[in-house]
Amino acid sequence: MAKDDTEAATVANYRESKRWFSQHPELGAPGRLPVSSYESQEQYELEKKYLWRRVWLMMGRVDEVEKPGQFFVTKVPPCDTEVLVVRGRDGEVRAFHNVCTHRGCPITWEERGKVGAFKCPFHGFVFDLSGDLAAVPDEKNFYNLDKSKYSLTEINMEIWNGFIFVHLDPEPRQGLREFLAETADRLDSFPFEGSPHYYEYQGDIDCNWKLVLYGFLENYHTQCLHKTSISPLVVSQDNPFSHNLEISLSEKHRFMSLFGNPDYKPTNVGTIASKYGIALMQVAADAESLVDCVNPTKSNCWSFDINNIFPNFQLNVVNGTWYCHRFWPLSPDKMRMVTRVYFPKPKNAGERFFQEYSKVATRDVLLEDATLGERLQSVLRSKAVEHWLLQDEEIAIQHFHHVLENFIEHEITKNP
Ligand code: FES
Ligand SMILES: [Fe+2]
Fold it and tell me: Which residue from 1, 202, 297, 333 has the highest number of Cβ atoms inside 10 Å of its Cβ?
């Protein structure tokens, strides 16, 4: 693809004229994050008590429970529970704690499936698809059992654009739409339902959940850590550190629009693969051809947009596909990352080949990020440095830190 001189000049000017921190004095002095926030048991307990049960958390997609009886289970480690999402016979999607009301056994041990009812593996209590207790073995031997009082414990659930979110507080102070705010406004019209087919990577990583998350909030590291994987796609001669086209910080969430190298040449295999799909292997040369809700600067050097939804859900939209990352804490120094990459169902062998290629390319980048998280954690408690230094393009990290601190502070004071 030939580089357009005007476009290159625009990108260069853009970088000169924008200094993100100067637009956000509310974040305080640039780049002084206390390392202690990422290693202490105390911080982990604060997050457990004041954060996770007080926000909307993304569980999965409605296409996973298309028909009555279809269900899936999502583990939510920081809330010490598993969420069972199921479509009832009445067509309603509901969420429950995957916990039997007899003696607390998970009522399904499967991650997903399709059932007529749930039978607890321990003593055989049967729950219907609406969560009501339908049958109890040897019922007469209980004392005046009123089955209507022993339904599964329902969890608040709301759906936005096919995404199923739950809120573990029985009385959420905010609805999902209000919580998602400008992220929902921006992506209301994105055709997520057109790509229901996904592959998933899931891994437990020996580091604090924010260490990996922070790597997804800045693109500064790409030229170095991802030098041999994704860097050639988002780094160019004119933009050697891949400065972002746009960063927008709101009350809770963050948005970044990423530069793409217009001179990017895939490898030989990548060139063949890219004939059958777009994903991260091509830069948008023609901004007009994209759906309206992406690439807000309408740049012809755009690669993808990052929508980071507080606290642990990241939705990356790419031309032709979209990524969904979730970052779950398991302990102060262990986390689980779940990444799904969505595509339309492949129509032929070429498209399947492209998706397999893209899967492997994504794996390489994720492994680099995960390894980095573990390397950071290995010296986090050394006390060699007390603060991390951030540069202008790392502002979204400072914003996340600021939002998290304020959120916990607010909850401690107003809703202890
Ligand atoms: S714990 Fe479920 S039937 Fe006993
Ligand atoms: Fe990375």
Answer: 333
Query: Does this chain's domain 5-41+183-414 share its CATH topology with 53-180?
Result: no
- The residues placing their C-beta within 5 Å of ligand 2, an ion, are 215, 369
Question: Is the CB of 301 within 6 Å of ligand 1?
Answer: no
Q: What is the domain partition of the chain in residue ranges?
A: 5-41+183-414, 53-180
CATH superfamily membership of 53-180: Rieske [2Fe-2S] iron-sulphur domain (2.102.10.10)
Residue 283: which pLDDT band, with cuts at 50, 70 and 90?
low
Q: What is the dihedral of CA 293, 294, 296, 299, to 10 degrees?
A: -140
Determine which residue's CA is closest to atom 3 belonging to ligand 1: 123
Tell me the torsion sign for CA atoms 407, 412, 414, 416: positive
Residues 289-304 pLDDT 10s: 778 889 999 998 999 9
pLDDT in tens, 252-276: 999 999 999 988 888 888 888 878 7
CA of 103 to the centre of ligand 1 (A): 5
**What is the pLDDT averaged over residues 75-91?**
97
DSSP per-residue codes, 13-74 = HHHHH--GGGG-GGG-SSS-EEGGGGT-HHHHHHHHHHTGGGSEEEEEEGGGG-STTEEEEE
5-41+183-414: in CATH 3.90.380.10: yes
Minimal CA–CA distance to 116: which of 66, 59, 61, 67? 67
Residue whose structure tokens are 């087919």: 197
pLDDT tens per residue, range 179-193: 999 999 999 999 998
Ligand 1 contacts CB of residue 102 (under 6 A): yes
